[in-house]
Amino acid sequence: MLLLARKTSQVALHMSVAFVVTYVCTGSLATGGLAAILEPICNVVLLPLHDRLWSKVQAKGGASIPFAAQRAA
To answer: pTM higher than 0.90 for the full model?
Structure first.
């Protein structure tokens, strides 16, 4: 139950930020509302693709380099 509440609050936060930023930039309630709806949909579609890409990078040996060494390079 706590996980559901957490995920719901995350979605609400994302939608709110998308709405506010778009509204401030455009001054349009309709455009802000559209951004608030599209942002979570894009996240749902793109996040699995992002994770799959990083899995392929790790499978090719990208995980063998420590994070601190990557930043120093």
So the answer is: no
Query: How far is 52 from 58, CA to CA, in rounded Å?
Result: 10
- The gap between the terminal CA atoms of the chain, to the nearest Å, is 44
* Paired tokens of 56: 């392929």
State how far the alpha carbon of 63 is from the alpha carbons of 46, 59, 66, 70, 71, in Å. Answer: 22, 8, 7, 10, 13
Q: Are 23 and 29 in contact (CB under 8 A)?
A: yes
Q: Where are the domains of the chain?
A: 2-62
In angstroms, the CA 50 to CA 3 distance is: 22
Residues 35-46 have pLDDT tens digits of: 999 998 998 899
